[in-house]
Write a structure and sequence with these properties.
Elements: E1 2-12, E2 16-20, E3 24-31, E4 33-38, H1 44-54, H2 78-86, E5 92-96, E6 101-104, E7 110-115, H3 118-122, E8 129-138, H4 144-162, H5 174-194, H6 200-225
Antiparallel strand pairs: 1-8, 2-7, 3-6, 3-8, 4-5, 4-7
Helix pairs in contact: 4-6, 5-6
Length: about 230
């Protein structure tokens, strides 16, 4: 797989990481509890409807990045969650306890709210530090077509989300991640060539490089038109 980002999160309890989506995410709770709301993959109309429900009185989910101190919408109450479920959006609402892990699939809108652990609640520590690890990635797939599909999914989702009536932000800079992935693949290709390696390893690297070229070409064209 191509890893986009690895991060260590240390946030105060009751902190909210607002709704966003794009790639696969693995989240490991270490200290404190992660309350998570997660929706299934949606088409553009469904994303528009859900974003309008979730934004509250704000024009967008955040004026900056999901982790920053910009104004955030209120955490969805039961009425909002019920409205999403009536739209058949398969809402998952659960609490990730210390030591537990969750995999959130690509293009699934989700948000986190931090809470103190049960032990800290019993000590009346209402404001405490919550610690977790997260990994963001896309799968390389087993063929040129599958890898290209993975990359096109995250780039297309990001573009469409930015044009919604209530824009959805990406947590990572997807275009920068793809460019860094391309740099990594070129380095791997040079290593394979210099060491005289061939066969399945060489073929997979070349398949991945050729899969990225059309996406890179589209990025360049859009940049030139700005």
């Amino acid at each position: 797989m191509l890893q986009f980002e690895w991060k260590h999160e240390t946030l105060l309890s009751e902190s909210i990481i607002t709704f966003y989506e794009n790639y696969h995410i693995g989240h490991q709770s270490l200290d404190g509890v992660n309350e998570i709301i997660m929706l299934r993959r949606m088409n553009r109309r469904q994303r528009n409807e859900s974003a309008d429900l979730l934004k509250g009185n704000l024009k967008t989910f955040s004026c900056g990045e999901p982790h920053d101190g910009a104004p955030k919408p209120d955490w969805p109450n039961d009425n909002v969650i019920d409205s999403l479920r009536r739209r058949n959006l398969a809402v998952s609402h659960f609490h990730l306890q210390p030591g537990e892990y969750v995999h959130i699939g690509k293009a699934r809108l989700h948000a986190f709210r931090k809470h103190p652990s049960r032990a800290k609640q019993q000590k009346n520590l209402r404001e405490s530090i919550c610690i977790s690890f997260a990994w963001d990635w896309i799968y390389e797939g087993s063929s040129r077509e599958s890898y290209r599909n993975e990359i096109e999914t995250v780039t297309t989702e990001e573009e469409q989300n930015s044009m919604l009536s209530t824009p959805l932000l990406s947590l990572a800079n997807i275009k920068t991640c793809i460019l860094q992935g391309l740099v990594s693949l070129i380095a791997r290709a040079k290593m394979v060539r210099n060491e005289g390696m061939c066969g399945s390893a060489s073929k997979k690297i070349m398949d991945m490089l050729f899969a990225m070229l059309p996406v890179l070409g589209d990025m360049i064209k859009k940049h030139e038109n700005v």
